[in-house]
């Protein structure tokens, strides 16, 4: 069986790499105490968005797996503001971690995360959503931005 890379795997790897890079190659500390604690706020906001979106998917009994066809189109809650609130939440956590750690070297990971997610997942998921939901998805897509 072929192992498929899932977005949370990338997210967790980037958290670990941020921590390693911060302690091994910190380059330069650009955010210092007490301002670094602002990162905790972003981390908490990102986690709340992720949990909220996850709960909505569970309530509608649709898949969280980006490789599977969706069964329901979720457009409530955080999906009113972002078509990809789970990815947005993960990226906010990465930004928050970078701010909390304060090291310049860690700020590369939230940027790379967005690029990878856009390239490997979002385009694929949007094609599937359009196949399954047609004009309903296109209307939603025209009203709500991809990220925020």
Provide structural commentary:
- The longest helix has 26 residues, at about 110-135.
- With about 150 residues, this protein is mainly α.
- Helix 1 (about 5-25) packs parallel to helix 3, helix 3 (about 85-100) packs antiparallel against helix 4 (about 110-135) and helix 4 (about 110-135) packs antiparallel against helix 5 (about 135-145).
- The radius of gyration is 17 Å and the shape is elongated.
- The protein has five helices and no strands.
Give helix and strand order, one letter per element, not per position.
Answer: HHHHH
User: What percentage of residues falls in helices of 4 or more residues?
Assistant: 55-70%
Class based on secondary structure composition and strand pairing: mainly alpha
Number of strands: 0
Task: Tell me the Rg in angstroms.
Answer: 17 Å
Beta fraction of the residues?
under 5%
Distance between the termini: 36 Å
Figure out the total of helices: 5
Low-confidence stretches: none
